[in-house]
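Hi team,

Filling in the usual template for the complex we talked about on Friday. All components are listed, including any nucleic acid strands or ligand strings, so the model treats them as one assembly.

SUBMITTER: L.P.
PURPOSE: interface mapping
COMPONENTS: two
RESIDUES: 226
SEQUENCES:
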Amino acid sequence: DAGITQSPRHKVTETGTPVTLRCHQTENHRYMYWYRQDPGHGLRLIHYSYGVKDTDKGEVSDGYSVSRSKTEDFLLTLESATSSQTSVYFCATLLAGVNEQFFGPGTRLTVL
Amino acid sequence: AQTVTQSQPEMSVQEAETVTLSCTYDTSENNYYLFWYKQPPSRQMILVIRQEAYKQQNATENRFSVNFQKAAKSFSLKISDSQLGDTAMYFCAFMKTGANNLFFGTGTRLTVIP
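RESULT (copied from the run log):
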């Protein structure tokens, strides 16, 4: 499982509230990613990081921000949650050299 | 952006039989990677098999093998001797060399029938 944990695993929140999801890895991987999974869309990239304090946008970044202050943690923040952000969120890291991504267990977020 | 298409939303197979899941992709790149991920009801994403585009030989992992047709931009997954534990969503994914982020298809839900 590449030592990836996500917290919380489930969250229910209300529209307009801020939400932060945490991804923690123990393998010292440089690259980390946040994806969202929705029916009919597969997984889509939100943001990714290629090092401490180095981040970039993915395909569906609107309404999300990220931070990476240390190698092992990658935070995803919804500044003001909307119902369209109800989804399952996956964190992943990259095993460099073989270009394989390993995924965390996912966080199910429901915005009411 | 790269696109990955899985045209079979659902499939079923009898236990011990063989099933093939289809995937096509669109890219102008010459060097890239292709992957099949399995997502069982536990929701965990599990890498099943990978293929480097520069390799002509099809990848094989135990009961799982691929048919990679680069010119046709096709990457199908064959599961032999299907087992009940193979019941899951299967996602095809594309990674451009040097880019590292994955582009996923919409998935195929496979059910293995006892």
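MY TAKE: The two ends of chain A are 31 Å apart (CA to CA). The mean pLDDT of chain A is 94.

Thanks, L.
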